[in-house]
Amino acid sequence: MQIPLQFHVAETTGWLVNHRMKSALPGYLMISSKTDTTDLSDLSEKALGEFGPLLARTQKALKQDLNAQRVYIGRYGHSPGYPIHFHVIPIYDWVEELFWKDGRYRLLENFAEGRGETAADGAELTLFVWREFCERAVSPPVRGPSVSEVIALLREVMRFPAP
User: What is the CATH number of the domain that holds 37?
Assistant: First the structure.
């Protein structure tokens, strides 16, 4: 699948970092392999060697430059037509506040056996982000820079030196 250029943030020889196209949450990024495969084991040593530093650089940018409280990184999709890719989801203070104010998500507490170690876990907040910022026709209001402003900022801070 071709990602329109306006969503591109950074790239290496083996990976593309882009803002998730269907997300109203500023800073929700995707890191996709440029190799058409769904398995890490099919990637070159060079691509694999780029991957860890790229994840670290992406996480650092979201935390330091956008003030994300947490950054979740995971592989979820398995739809045909997409190479292996990873979701990089920033959780800002205001996102967690919205989560706690939305009573629909208190139903998730029914699935726990006893109190968890934290007030909300990554799975719950990821679900919240997906449903509210990626799937709703009208997302909750965003506090801070817009998606396009965040893309421009991340392009600057994640700029890689020329090879």
Answer: 3.30.428.10
